[in-house]
Amino acid sequence: MGDLYIALIHAPVYNKNMEEIATSITNLDIHDIARSATTYGVKGYYIVHPAEAQRSLAQRIMGYWQEGFGAEYNPHRQEAFARVKLAREIGEVEAEIFAEHGKMPIKLATDARYYPNTLDYSTVRKKLEIEEKPMLLLFGTGWGLTREVIESCDIILKPIYGPGEWNHLSVRSAAAIILDRLRGQ
Description:
With 185 residues, the chain is an alpha/beta fold. 44% of the residues lie in helices and 19% in strands. It has helices spanning 27-39, 52-66, 68-73, 75-81, 90-101, 121-130, 147-151, 171-183, and strands at 4-9, 13-14, 20-21, 44-48, 84-87, 106-110, 118-119, 135-140, 155-157. β2 (13-14) and β3 form a beta hairpin. The radius of gyration is 16 Å and the shape is globular.
């Protein structure tokens, strides 16, 4: 199975008025997505934010669980945070993956809308199983990744729907569902 990386993108993303913004890093997204990433064998989980203050906040949150009392109290959290990295922009993530593999990753995006290069999960799962290039799966916060980011991706994953039309899940819930569909037993 190929190496899978994920990135939680905080900028550029949309707000509910479809304006380009940066969202705040949240404690729950750091914790829950790190735990899902560890469960499903993700090689690296990147939190992408252009603001130094936001990356510092994320580092402090992770540091609590990686050192001292937090690490002693819950060693499983320490293990999950071992694969979390911070980055300023998506290009920095791609460069790091390229440095490790000597190949640019295939970029996948998630979105609540359909695009011409939208693929279903079984197709992407098969591709992940045979692909020699690493894959980088992008999750957008706020109201989703910008069109420019989506269009820079090789593959767009099919939106997640329940029995109705409503599909505005939290990013941590969507990440868990998507990772299970791509890597679950």
